[in-house]
Amino acid sequence: VPFLCTMSKKYPIKILVAWGEAISGNAELRNWLMGNGYPELGLFVHALQLDDKARQWLIQEGYPALMALCAGSEGDMHAVEWLRNHGHDILADMALGADNDDEAMHRLLSADERIWATIALKIRSVKNDIEERHNDWHSFGLD
Question: What is the pTM of this model?
Answer without folding.
Answer: 0.89
